[in-house]
User: Which sequence fits this backbone?
């Protein structure tokens, strides 16, 4: 199980880092900016989670392979010409993957430390959304989590509870984790594809 969790963590780091690098390049940032945005996107949510739960040292300090990986990715992304041509709209897929992975892993860690389902769901949402919120804020964009035209945190929250229920009902922790994760990723992509929102503007502009 540990190997599965670690593999998912690395996939989540890569996915969120890619979304951060795409956002940074869309703002014409230099390699330092690309690395900074990728770093805060990939590791910001976990950092907030660890600070709230007083979990020290921070996870990425204990696992320095993660910031090293992000640095290597940022260098390649900055100097490989084809990478710089990736459209900003491509941010949706890696962002959805990162959201799903870190939401569920954040919630799982909170459960492992003895917190209730409700507290674990909040910590899961924080872990999954805070990095993206930092990315968007630093890139001078309204974060997905605060936009009326996006369903973001609500999907993360619902995915946590689906994971908890599956964990309670099913004998397999891995299956419950997979169901919760895939729910978040798929619903997020469908919401973007079909413009699904929690609230419609009652007075759309002409």
Assistant:
């Amino acid at each position: 199980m540990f190997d599965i969790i670690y593999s998912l963590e690395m996939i989540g780091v890569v996915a969120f880092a890619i979304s951060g690098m795409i956002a940074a390049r869309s703002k014409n940032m230099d390699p330092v900016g690309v690395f900074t945005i990728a770093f805060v996107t990939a590791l910001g949510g976990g950092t907030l989670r660890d600070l709230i739960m007083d979990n020290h040292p921070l996870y990425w300090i204990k696992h320095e392979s993660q910031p090293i990986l992000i640095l290597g990715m940022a260098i390649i992304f900055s100097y490989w010409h084809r990478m710089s041509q990736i459209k900003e709209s491509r941010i949706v897929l890696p962002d959805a993957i990162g959201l799903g992975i870190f939401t569920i892993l954040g919630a799982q860690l909170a459960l492992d430390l003895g917190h209730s389902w409700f507290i674990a769901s909040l910590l899961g949402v924080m872990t999954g959304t805070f990095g993206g919120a930092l990315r968007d804020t630093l890139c001078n964009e309204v974060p997905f989590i605060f936009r009326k035209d996006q369903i973001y945190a609500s999907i993360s929250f619902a995915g946590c509870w689906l994971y908890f229920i599956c964990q309670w009902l099913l004998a397999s922790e891995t299956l419950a984790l997979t169901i919760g994760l895939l729910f978040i990723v798929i619903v997020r992509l469908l919401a973007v594809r079909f413009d699904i929102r929690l609230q419609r503007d009652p007075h759309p502009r002409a």
